[in-house]
Each structure stands twice: as structure tokens, then as C-alpha cells.
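A note on notation is needed here, since sequence and fold are reported together in a single record. The reader may check this reading against the record printed directly beneath this paragraph.
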Amino acid sequence: MAAEATRSAKPRSRGGRSAGKRSTGRIDVAEVSVSSPERVIDSQSGLHKIDLARFYCRVADWILPGLDNRPVSLLRAPEGIEGEQFFQKHAGRLAIPDIKHLDQSLDPAHPPLMEIDTQKALVGAVQMGAVEFHTWGATTDRIERPDHLVFDLDPDPELPWQRMLDATAFLLDILDELRLDAFLKTSGGKGMHIVVPLGRFHGWERVKAFAHAVSEFACRRQPDRLTATMGPKNRVGKIFIDYLRNQRGASTVAAYSARARPGLPVSVPIHRDELGQLKAASQWTVGNLGERLDTLNSDPWSGYANRQRITASMWRTIGAKPPEED
């Protein structure tokens, strides 16, 4: 049987934390010498590179459990978010302190994939211009067996926020009908992410097909409000349920990762009963997330456990047939 992983109620400790030590022309954070610390990363908030490094130093205990033992991709913006941005999935010649280069066999046609599992590597990535951290839906020890699936709800920008709340609640009701536990986080952009933990029983094709089938099932129930078809024209007046995050090599922004958007919003897990009070997907930012973390009584994803299975009865409920197991 596949090994189970259960999320604890509190973030794991990673040892002592360093808020930052000054040195000539640089500031040391988590044993990383941060160059150009006063470079403005985001003009809207006025936050600097050193602020982002200190942010990740502070949230390391929260973000690292979601990065451990997974390929990570970086969205880098070396000159700030208003400059050039690029997405990096492979290590290449990038020299980040403490970063792991994964086994070449995981992606043989390219340079090694990367993993970040320490505070030093996290801050080291910021030193090299990283703003966002994205992860695969599987761990490196069983890369062909996803341990969760994600529904990324992406709205027509003209829609009111209440429509996003309604769509999220509607999809949660469907998952309840299927008897699947699901967990919520803001995207840090315009939408919401619904994460369904799974035991490592199924391959990528079956997990992707199931996510697609659930999305189509939801769209059949609310065809005027939801779509599972890509493209701006198909999204007019609707919310796109992006199920394509659930294919091999795809990634989703990690919980507690900042986003390279004005204001530096953060993708933040929430309790299900907080959904109705949520004001925006960008409600929490690098500048204000600390207030939330300081006042949380419990981890919103406490009880997260990778042990659920996609069953034959679930396929029947949504009126779909599974592909042959890969």
C-alpha cells in the first residue's frame, strides 16, 4: 500500500530563524548574503528585495512542508515584477545555496529538476531573483503517482468577487457529494485553488481525467456560469475550471508563496468556514500576512492526509468512465 502522509496542526520547526544581519553592501538572511537589498521589487507596495527575503525567512515553517520532496519551479523577476519575468523549471547553471538538483531520470531530456527543502535554499532563490515557487502534484520518490489534484478557478476579470465565492462553494458541494475531503487556498491572483489530497494509487492520466470529468460535471450543472474550455472567448462571463494543473510536469503555485503581481499578494490556505468572509484572492500580501499567521488558532489545512482514492462509484456519479490505469 502507498505510504500515507498527514499534515500536522502546526508548521514544522526548521531550527533557528535569522531576521537579517547587515554586512557591507549586503544583508545576510538565513546565512545567505542578499545583494542589492534596497532594490524595489514592487512599486505599488514599495517593498524591496530584502523585504521579500525576510518574508520567506519568516514563513519558511509554513511554506517548506509543501515544497519538500517535490520538483519546484521558480518564477524569477531579477529587476522587480515590472521588469522581465521568466519561469524556470530546471537547474541549469543557476547557483542557489542549498538547492537540491534532482535525479536526472525524473526528466531525462533536460537539466536536473530542482527541490527546495531548507530556509537557506528558499532565501537563496530570492537572492537569485525568485518571487514565486510552484510545485508538482507528486513527490520525487514516486513521481508517477500524484498525491493530490487541484482545481484552479480562474474568472473572467469583469465578474464580481461573489461569483468566485459561489463557484468555489458549488465545487466544494460536488466534492462533498463524492465524499472527497478538499482544502482551500487563495491563488494570490484573481481566483481560488481547491486541493484534493490523494493516496498514491493512480497515475497521471487517471488523475487528470478525473479532474477533467469533475470539471465537466460541474459545468453541465451550471453551464451559464462555468466552463472547462480554455481560451479568453470561452471565459466571457464565466469562471474557468482549470484541471490541466493535474498533468505530469505541470505545477501550481505553492501555499504561502508570494505572487509577482502589484502589491505582492500571497497564495494563502484558509479554513472552509472563512470562504464567505473572504474579500479577494489577493487579500493577503507580503506586507500583511504576518498579522494573519500571528493570530491563527490552528493550521487551516490541519488534517490534510494523502490517503483518498478515486473510486468506481465516483466515476459513476459524475457520469464518466476512467481511462485504463497507467
User: Anything to note?
Assistant: The chain has two domains: 26-135, 144-319. Residues 204-221 form the longest helix (18 residues). The radius of gyration is 20 Å. The domain at 144-319 is CATH 3.90.920.10 (DNA primase, PRIM domain).
